């Protein structure tokens, strides 16, 4: 039985693409797989996973935080702190590199160039407003720049950037709506202290957070977005801050195969499942827009697997002091006398909360391959 030429071509393309994915090797820059998507701008909403310098510019409190000084940024090209919550680059930086674009400037940098996009993310930001969180007995001690505030910044920016021509100017732009929502849960778990093991009250936040993210997606669509990635949460039970606070007194059966607290990871999965459902509903409502889920949870799990084979320290902070996980919430990274490891590239965690540049690079290498197909860049 003969095989049509188009079928042979399709098979060849799949094989060639598979070989390309397999050939991805570690490097300083993320592999440029996503360059095939031909995006000319990137716009980012989110929190400290993505903030490239907004928090340190928006208030005196932000400027006084450790993120504004070394050792944060020590691996960055000029060895200077930029407001990124890591030793160097973040995931959004590697995404920009992979797309062949400049690194995204924070929107609060009034002298910056925003020709190729802008970063609206703020470290410490939540999806829900401080007022709504307060009704659930949760306090945001860092910033009031929630998702709604960031969306207003974006609206104001587009009013100046594209006036009444946004649909045309943004047709090849990539919008990252998150990761956001993790801090809503982080503040709840960490403020409820011993009550954190009973997640019922915190579970009530999930539909509110997901609804807010869903609303944000609809807002960016109204601005002119046509390609949107909506990331989920990391497996929070793997982070040194949680392992230190809740894991030291946990029984063996409270950990999963990666020595992460399974209850917290189950909570993250619960959020992610609700988010996936919301994305499916949005995609059905807006068939002319590409809306995909960014699987940060699976990417982190892959990081742990790969990191273990490469001899990385998976759950010990590079910058920190004391205890099994080198984390102490009263003496955190950037505080006087807190030491930094010699080789951050051997660590997954930078400060017990955020990841190292190398960990973020590895995550983006995995995400590129996943998003390449979801975004239909191979068409």
Automatic annotation (TrEMBL):
SUPFAM superfamilies: SGNH hydrolase. Keywords: Glycoprotein, Hydrolase, Signal. It comes from the Eukaryota. Residues 1-30 form the signal peptide. Belongs to the 'GDSL' lipolytic enzyme family. This is GDSL esterase/lipase At5g03980-like. The gene is LOC113728592.
């Amino acid at each position: 039985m003969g095989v049509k030429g188009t079928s042979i071509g399709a098979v060849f393309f799949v094989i060639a693409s598979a070989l390309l994915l397999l050939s991805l090797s570690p490097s300083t820059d993320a592999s440029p797989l996503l360059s095939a998507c031909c995006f000319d701008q990137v716009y980012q909403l989110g929190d400290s996973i993505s903030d490239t310098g907004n928090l340190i510019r928006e208030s005196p409190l932000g400027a006084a935080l450790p993120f504004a000084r070394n050792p944060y940024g020590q691996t960055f090209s000029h060895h200077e702190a930029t407001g990124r919550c890591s030793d160097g680059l973040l995931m959004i930086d590697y995404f920009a590199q992979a797309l062949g674009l400049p690194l995204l400037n924070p929107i609060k940098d009034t002298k910056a160039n925003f020709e190729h996009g802008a970063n609206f993310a703020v470290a410490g930001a939540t999806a829900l407003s401080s007022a709504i969180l307060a009704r659930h007995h949760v306090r945001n001690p860092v910033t009031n720049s929630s998702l709604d505030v960031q969306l207003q910044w974006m609206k104001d920016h587009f009013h100046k950037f594209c006036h009444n021509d946004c649909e045309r100017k943004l047709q090849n732009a990539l919008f990252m709506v998150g990761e956001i929502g993790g801090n809503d849960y982080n503040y709840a778990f960490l403020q409820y202290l011993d009550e954190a093991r009973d997640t019922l009250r915190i579970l009530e936040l999930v539909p509110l957070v997901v609804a807010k993210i869903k609303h944000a997606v609809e807002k960016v669509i109204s601005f002119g977005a046509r390609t949107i990635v909506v990331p989920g949460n990391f497996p929070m039970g793997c982070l040194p801050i949680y392992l230190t606070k809740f894991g030291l007194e946990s029984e063996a059966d409270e950990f999963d195969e990666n020595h992460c607290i399974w209850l917290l990871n189950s909570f993250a999965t619960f959020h992610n499942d609700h988010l996936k459902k919301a994305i499916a509903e949005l995609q059905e409502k807006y068939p002319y827009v590409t809306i995909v889920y960014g699987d940060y949870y699976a990417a982190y799990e892959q990081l742990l697997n790969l990191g273990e084979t490469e001899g990385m320290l998976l759950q010990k902070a590079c910058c920190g002091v004391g205890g099994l996980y080198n984390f102490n919430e009263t003496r955190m990274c950037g505080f006087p006398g807190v030491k930094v490891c010699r080789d951050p590239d051997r660590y997954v965690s930078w400060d017990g909360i955020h990841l190292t540049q190398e960990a973020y690079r590895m995550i983006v290498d995995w995400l590129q391959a996943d998003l390449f197909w979801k975004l239909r860049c191979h068409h």
